[in-house]
Amino acid sequence: MEVKHKKQDKSGKFYIEIDGEQKAEMTYRFQSDDVIDINHTEVDASLSGQGVGYKIIDAAVAFMRENNLKAVASCSYAQHVFKKKQEDYRDIIYDKKS
Question: Whole-prediction pTM value?
Fold first, then answer.
């Protein structure tokens, strides 16, 4: 299951297509040159329980590391994943105090 990435001017998404149909996505918007806001995550019910949400977040984290970006999460799912995996993602989670 390949996670694809589409970046537009100040926003983008990571997504999974199956048979040409988008079945999962995580969208983001740039808040500044080096901080993105993950604002939405959605996975089709047909993929439930397969860890697809985590796969998409992991792809986004790899992108952030490659591009020296940090993230905030206004999406409740992304907030949950960041909290659960805070040790693994410490380097990309934006801390306003830093």
Answer: 0.90
